[in-house]
Write a structure and sequence with these properties.
The protein has 9 helices and 15 strands. The protein has 323 residues and is of the alpha/beta class. The strands form 3 sheets. Strands 3, 4, 5, 6, 7, 14 and 15 form a 7-stranded mixed β-sheet that branches. It has a 6-stranded parallel β-sheet with strand order 10-9-8-11-12-13, sandwiched between helices. Strands 1-2 form a two-stranded antiparallel sheet. Helix 6 links the parallel strand 12 and strand 13. The mean pLDDT is 96. It comes from Shinella zoogloeoides (Crabtreella saccharophila).
Length: 323
């Protein structure tokens, strides 16, 4: 048996219940790990509420890190005692668990398991956004919503290291100050300013090359008004609710714009893609180009309180659940 958070009905944070659940031996191609920490992400909320579909009951969470304690049949690329992390294996909210090795990467020496749990999903999201969905380079001008969030703080530092001018949005002076300390050249208080008008001012009317938007409903379609002609709108989340259906003609009207709705899991679908993305992240962290902030920790049993704080925007940076 092990302790895990189980969701038996969809709803608010109150449906997150700590239970004793069976834990068998790892199956073929799996390892068993004792988890040091579990990452909290908005995608966990989407599954909890039913915005993203899965069968009930289920253990939420996709990101964690720990130590291998047992090997399943046929596993040769991992050993007992290996420190490992993952960002795409459902069922993370648990003290111990079995994980298919296709989801795992080995954590390099010098990176703690807590840091690994804090950065895998958010950091690899920043990697594919900045280096694959749109290739940020010296001279790029970007807008990143939710600049003080977990992905936002990593992306700000990484984009600055790539030579970009980095503009962000945030909802309080404390979050603005935090983002400015993590690579952002300008941070707009969306509660006090029209962010699209301010972006135009900051860019002398030119607009930005790309908008990275994980907020969704509250920032659309104004995000489109921030873009240069033929700019790219990247919708990679919807913390305020999903973007409503819109007429594709709007993209033509606003400057022959491009739009995409990517997910990390399409960018790390193969072993080669996962390793390349993770290694790129490890390199910038070990090279001190990106530092990982663990700004909040909660006991696993208090996952409901963590979800409440996340949804009410009381958190910044990265949040961990500790089994």
């Amino acid at each position: 048996m092990t302790k895990a958070i189980v969701i038996r009905s969809l709803g608010g944070p109150e449906v997150l219940k700590l239970e004793d659940v069976p834990l068998g031996a790892p199956g073929p191609g799996e390892v068993q790990i004792r988890q040091a920490a579990v990452g909290l992400n908005f995608i966990d909320v989407y599954f909890r509420t039913g915005l993203y579909k899965t069968d009930l009951p289920f253990v939420p969470g996709k990101e964690g890190a720990g130590t291998v304690t047992a090997l399943g049949e046929g596993v040769t690329d991992f050993a007992i005692g290996d420190r490992v992390a993952y960002a795409s294996a459902d069922g993370a909210y648990a003290a111990e668990r079995n994980v298919a090795t296709k989801h795992l990467v080995k954590v390099p020496d010098g990176i703690s398991l807590e840091t690994a749990a804090a950065m895998m999903l958010k950091g690899m999201t920043a990697q594919y956004l900045l280096l694959q969905t749109y290739k940020v380079k010296p001279g790029s001008v970007i807008l990143f919503h939710a600049a003080a969030g977990g992905v936002g703080l990593i992306a700000g530092q990484w984009a600055k290291a790539l030579g970009a001018t980095v503009i962000g949005t945030a909802g309080s002076q404390a979050k603005i100050d935090l983002a400015l300390a993590h690579g952002y050249d300008h941070v707009i208080d969306y509660g006090k300013e029209d962010f699209a008008e301010r972006v135009r001012e900051l860019t002398n009317g030119a607009g930005v090359d790309v908008v990275y938007d994980s907020v969704g409903k509250d920032t659309f379609p104004r995000s489109l008004d921030c873009l240069k002609p033929r700019g790219l709108f990247v919708s990679f989340g919807n913390s305020s609710g999903p973007v409503d259906a819109f007429n594709m003609g709007l993209l033509a009207q606003k400057g022959s714009l491009f739009a995409t709705r990517p997910t990390l899991f399409a960018y790390i679908a193969t072993r080669a893609e996962l390793d390349a993305c993770a290694n790129s992240l490890f390199d910038v962290v070990q090279g001190n180009k990106v530092r990982i902030n663990i700004n909040q920790t909660y006991p696993l049993a208090e996952a409901g309180r963590a979800h409440t704080d996340l949804e009410t925007r009381k958190t910044s940076g990265t949040t961990l659940l500790i089994p």
